[in-house]
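Practice problem: predict the structure.
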Amino acid sequence: MYHHRTLLHVYGEGQVIGLDQNLAAWALASAWRRMTLCPLHGPVVIAGRTPDGEAAALDDDLAGHARTVAQTVRETLKAWKTRPPASSEAAVSELLAYAARDVASGR
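Answer:
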């Protein structure tokens, strides 16, 4: 569970079959959990979650988080083409800081 009001449907074999990392979904899930999670690979579907654990429509605020974090990740990757991060660890820290900011501000 990445957020108590969501269900994330993740391709379980994504890494094994060579799907690309889904940086936007990973950054969002990590921000929601407030910790660095294992990479997510391939497509991810985010749905709302009912109190009994069933899929439901995603609340507007959580959909906003997803849109904003995805946009931030796109912009960050574009910026890295001219200003690459110093290391993999720096890249992870930068993306997670942006995602945490986006989620905390409700942007």
